[in-house]
Specification:
The complex is a heterodimer of chains A (161) and B (201).
Chain A: H1 2-7, H2 12-24, H3 26-44, H4 46-49, H5 55-99, H6 105-117, H7 119-130, H8 139-151
Chain B: H1 3-18, H2 21-43, H3 46-63, H4 73-89, H5 121-125, H6 130-142, H7 146-157, H8 162-169, H9 173-200
Helix pairs in contact in B: 1-2, 2-3, 2-4, 3-4, 4-8, 6-9, 7-9, 8-9
The chains are: A mainly alpha (161), B mainly alpha (201).
Chain lengths: 161, 201
């Protein structure tokens, strides 16, 4: 309750009552004055209360963080490139299996269900499987097929050996 | 959070994601003092605080990608810092802390203050005392248990709002208020005793 009083969130009527009590009661008045000055001084003396970071710690920290931080994006880039290469390989394998009619039955089902609602993929697969056209794959189809492959349960092969 | 602050945070994070040296320098410049201070006040040991500060910066740089802009960058960093420090404390022997109860105001059955209540607010208003007072506040704060101290440092020393402190620590706002109030009561009482002893001596 006192916390509400001091931070100003107390109900105004209650606050008025308390104010008038404090004004007449010396111990309470002294308490409230010293409480407030404690808070005020804490804010004012922030610089003295805080621990200053020593120069040698600062230097070591900067050297360490800089060298570690600059290596990190390089690692991320390599990892992403690798993941991208793997994705492309998988995609190519999937599409050639589709042309050769070697997709597993569960994958065929997934592709058919998807094609029923996606005109772009339907057109592409129709062309590829029926006409044997292996021309460029549109971006939208690539991204849909990638998502299809990711949707397969782990361990499930999407094409027949 | 203001749109401007969000934009600044986002710009800094973008530089971090790209891994530019400027981004890293800016992050260090803005936060190393604050993070070190917070780590020191929890760990109370310079070499522990140094290692914790390193960990915090590495975590922030590594996770710059995944940071969601639903809180300010500094509050995210404080949260990482608090977690890192508490993790380090875990398993370690707890530092000696005082029992806060001893410093809570005591009332008589009639609801009066049980001990004499002096007004020393005028005395400490003299700026001559400031340096010593700052040192004393730090010393007394150091004796608090983490529960109170972290709230006190974030709210009263760092000047965050109760809401921000609650978010960083995963507490409710009333819990923050109550801990903060108790820490202030404790500090007021400690300063009282300290100033009276000074007068007596």
């Amino acid at each position: 309750m006192l916390a509400d009083y001091f931070d100003g969130s107390m109900d105004p009527r209650l606050r008025e009552e308390l104010d008038s009590h404090i004004a007449m009661c010396e111990p309470c008045m002294n308490f409230s004055k010293t409480y407030r000055i404690t808070c005020d001084k804490t804010k004012e003396l922030r610089k003295d209360i805080e621990y200053q970071i020593p120069q040698d710690v600062r230097d070591r920290l900067e050297t360490f963080v800089r060298s570690a931080a600059l290596k990190y994006p390089q690692m991320v880039r390599e990892y992403r490139d690798q993941a991208e290469r793997e994705r492309r390989e998988k995609l190519a394998a999937f599409l050639s299996a589709a042309s050769a009619g070697k997709l597993s039955s569960i994958t065929v089902l997934l592709v058919e269900t998807h094609c029923a609602i996606c005109p772009e993929c339907k057109e592409y697969f129709d062309r590829r499987i029926q006409a044997g056209d292996s021309g460029a794959t549109p971006g939208i189809v690539e991204s849909h097929v990638t998502r299809l492959m990711e949707a397969l349960p782990p361990g499930e092969e999407f094409f027949l050996a | 959070m203001s749109a401007e602050r969000w934009k600044e945070d986002e710009a800094l994070l973008e530089r971090l994601r790209k891994g530019t040296p400027e981004g890293v320098n800016e992050l260090l410049h803005l936060f190393q003092g604050k993070i070190f201070n917070l780590a020191m006040s929890i760990l109370k040991n310079e070499s522990d605080a140094e290692e914790a500060t390193q960990d915090v910066f590495m975590t922030v740089i590594r996770k710059a990608d995944t940071f969601k802009g639903n809180s300010a960058l500094y509050s995210w960093m404080y949260r990482i810092c608090v977690n890192t420090c508490l993790m380090r404390l875990r398993g370690k022997r707890r530092n000696e802390t005082v029992s806060i109860e001893e410093f809570m105001p005591v009332f008589t059955d009639e609801g009066m203050h049980a001990s004499p209540m002096d007004d020393w607010s005028k005395e400490v208003e003299r700026d001559a005392l400031n340096e010593e007072l700052g040192r004393m506040i730090r010393k007394f704060t150091d004796q608090l248990s983490e529960k109170y101290k972290v709230v006190f440092v974030l709210s009263d020393v760092e000047g965050l709002s109760n809401e921000e402190t609650a978010k960083i620590l995963g507490l409710t706002v009333p819990a923050v208020k109550s801990r903060l109030h108790r820490a202030r009561l404790y500090l007021r009482e400690q300063l009282s005793r300290y100033l009276q002893d000074g007068k007596a001596g």
